Please model this.
Amino acid sequence: MTPSPDPKPLHYSAMQLAWLHELGIDKPWLPGDTRAVPAAASAASAPAQSAAPAAVLTAAAASTPSAASTPTAARASATPTTPSRSSTRGAASKPQQAAAPMSAVSIAAMTALTRAAAAAAPDLESLTLAASACQACGLCRQRDQVVMGQGVTQPAILVVGDGPGEQEDRKGLPFMAESGALLDQMLATIGSARTRDVYLTNLVKCRPPGNRLAQREEIAACHSYLVRQLELLRPFSILALGRNVAQTLLNTDEPLQNLRGRVHAFEVAGQKIPLVASYHSAHLLNHPADKAAAWQDLQLLRTLRR
Ligand code: URA
Model:
């Protein structure tokens, strides 16, 4: 897929300039951009970012229930050692239960169950109800709330993260902690927000305990909910956050470095949705040097705007 030419020149707010400055970007280099970031701009002088969350969606887009596609494997998270996410979320507040590895047959049976439940949901509210009753994998045992997502229907960008953390589980909303605040700031630099033209969701809708990545069978069980969300929300583009999400959605083992910097396609209900892979904002909290590359990925997304 070829990105279209730069749609319109950017006008930067003080907060955006501060963010760019923090990235070390102080030269005009964006297409059509002739302004340098003033050296005086600093994060300290930027106005506080308003991350006021929108109400959880209740409106539904028109939809045609269809079977969710076969879940893709979450390669990186499939290891029995269950690596933790590089985020700053709090420690698990409940005792952890080790998830026993499941056979391929059990995964297939579980996936068939969620596929039927998700496909039968005519709108987002029904889909949330179905997911709230879901017991297809062990994550249901420790969740406080199912975290379906937040944002607008027909979003310009649908952001996919790994899974809810402690705060998200408590509030029932995605990206509520520090990495969510950074994500909001990053989206603001391209004029986007969860209150305006973005929808945020995750590979899995229930919190993996202990801040670990979701396991292969958990992602497989939840995949139908994500696919149905995409069918109902009809996003214009997808931003896959981090290696785990990118590899899962693109069904590949390729490292994130190879997946970044180009436009992929994610097919839902016969439609190819442009997908850009980038660093997870939780990763950027610990690796600020990668923010410049993340900024480039956002620019690539911006060129896709309708
Ligand atoms: N919060 C989320 O909802 N998802 C993530 O991947 C990280 C934080």
Remarks:
- The chain has one domain: 14-76+100-302.
